[in-house]
Write a structure and sequence with these properties.
The chain is mainly beta. The chain has a single domain, classed as Immunoglobulin-like (Sandwich). The chain is built from 1 helix and 11 strands; from the N terminus they run αβββββββββββ. The strands form 2 sheets. Strands 2, 3, 4, 6, 7, 8 and 10 form a 7-stranded antiparallel sheet that branches.
């Protein structure tokens, strides 16, 4: 009888000491989201063709973020977590412009199961003006929410 009670107690302790691993169901993507707008009317504008490259140490990365994408009115760009500036080359309908985003980084703890992400706060946006006529920063805080941060006026 003593062995049975000891075994039962040991089994109960093992059963309650094991917890199920929690699954992360949170979005962990932190992207800089931009939309294209007509500079005259302010209406959403579809781009016929766009290719977007990120610049890394002033050289073009091998892979493009968007490669000859047709009929698009918004883009989502990953910012460099280990720097406070990201530069992108946008080839819009055959004409190149650069988009320079300067920001500060902050670590954001989501949960034990999801870990942390690096969020950003936009300080400055600069661009060349070949096709881009202007821009408007709509939301300076870049985190895991799906909101627009920049309106690019063409």
């Amino acid at each position: 009888m003593k062995i049975f009670i000891t075994l039962l107690t040991l089994m109960l302790l093992l059963l309650f000491s094991c917890t199920q691993e929690e699954t992360c169901r949170e979005n962990k993507q932190v992207l800089f989201r931009s939309g294209f707008y007509n500079s005259g009317t302010g209406n959403t504008l579809n781009i016929d063709s766009i290719t977007v490259f990120g610049l890394n140490n002033y050289s073009i990365d091998v892979d493009s973020l968007y490669k000859n994408v047709k009929n698009i009115n918004k883009i989502a760009l990953p910012l460099n977590n280990s720097a406070e500036e990201s530069i992108f080359v946008l080839n819009i309908n055959g004409t190149h412009d650069t988009l320079n985003i300067q920001y500060s980084n902050k670590e954001y703890f989501i949960s034990y199961s999801c870990g942390m992400v690096i969020t950003h706060h936009v300080d400055t946006v600069l661009s060349t003006n070949h096709v881009i006529k202007g821009y408007k920063i709509v939301n300076r805080d870049i985190n895991t929410t799906d909101v627009q941060h920049l309106q690019i006026l063409l």
